[in-house]
Amino acid sequence: MSRLPLGKLKSELLDKLLTLYKGQADSSVVLGPRIGEDAAVIDLGDRYLIAKTDPITFATEEIGWYAVHINANDVATTGARPRWFQAALLLPEASPEDLAEQIFAQMDRAMKELGVALVGGHTEITYGLDRPIVVGSMFAEIEKDKLVQKTNIQVGDEIILTKGIVIEGTAVIAREKEKGLKEDFPPEFIQRARNYLYEPGISVVEDALIAASAGACALHDPTEGGLNMGLWELATTSGKGIVLYEDQVPILLEAKALCERFGLNPFGTITSGSLLVVISAEKSAELLARYEEKGIKAAKIGEITSSGLSVKRQGKIYDLKYSEKDEITRIFE
pLDDT for 109-167, tens place per residue? Predict the structure, then answer.
């Protein structure tokens, strides 16, 4: 039996598991576990409950802050504003007491930034860990007629990307590999890369709520596997195709330099902080104008087709390649 590689489970295996093992059937589950979906949707009668769970495994610095924002991002892709957070905090043996307080303080800061309340969770000292792990769960509610779903995607819709790619990946590399980077980059560069957590920032809650109010057909938060994996997830969930205009994808200066330094493909590197918006061609100009007004950089990077995944690069068409294994795992191997 082959061993599982780092990163997401292979899509074929995950699809098999979700098909075979999904618990008791429940008619109140509007949207359950599915490849490419960001959050669950549960019918509460007069409104929907949105629920999401995500762990933080690559980062060690600011892990509590990460956990809140990463889970909030996925909830916001439904058009809902995040409201309630839970966390399971697992600490290595012999951890100092102040480590727990640091992580709680990080979560508190992030929750206050978003207007989110802590409602529960779990803590323990866990055998076999070499670093802390936070598994977060975020919840929200939304009026039924305001829910944004990927099933609304239509052929001809445009794809807009906010900010750029490799936002989270840049911060992770700069923070986890800072010592080695000092030989190749000046302190100011490393500090800017470290600060990608906050500027341009890994939160897409505002980006998503603006897009939802502008009539977006679908929203997706590309994370592990980078932009290309996120596009594959969009195509898989919607049953449509995608063409990516690769030359139009913004790659920020520090992101490009650090990917080149470690030989990583930026299109396959974790990119929390970017939001994929699918919107009709008639509404895309208005959305771009709203983003510009709010100081959020955004660009049209592709469109929805009837089938297939392709990339247009320097005027030529190629197959779009993606992988469940994130490029950033290579810096930890």
Answer: 999 999 999 999 999 999 999 999 999 999 999 999 999 999 899 999 999 999 999 99
Tokens of 22: 């999904």
Provide the b/e sequence for 157-194 (b: ≥16 CB within 10 Å).
bbbbbbbbbbbbbbbbbbbbbbeebeeebeeebbebbb
Give the count of beta carbons closer than 10 Å to the beta carbon of residue 2: 5
Q: What is the pLDDT of residues 247-279, one digit of tens each?
A: 999 999 999 999 999 999 999 999 999 999 999
Q: Contact 154/257 with Cβ under 8 angstroms?
A: no
Domains and CATH numbers, the chain: 27-146 (3.30.1330.10), 150-331 (3.90.650.10)
User: CB count, 10 Å around CB of 316?
Assistant: 7
Q: Which residue, 141, 139, 142, 97, is CA-closest to 118?
A: 139
Q: What is the pLDDT of residue 311?
A: 97
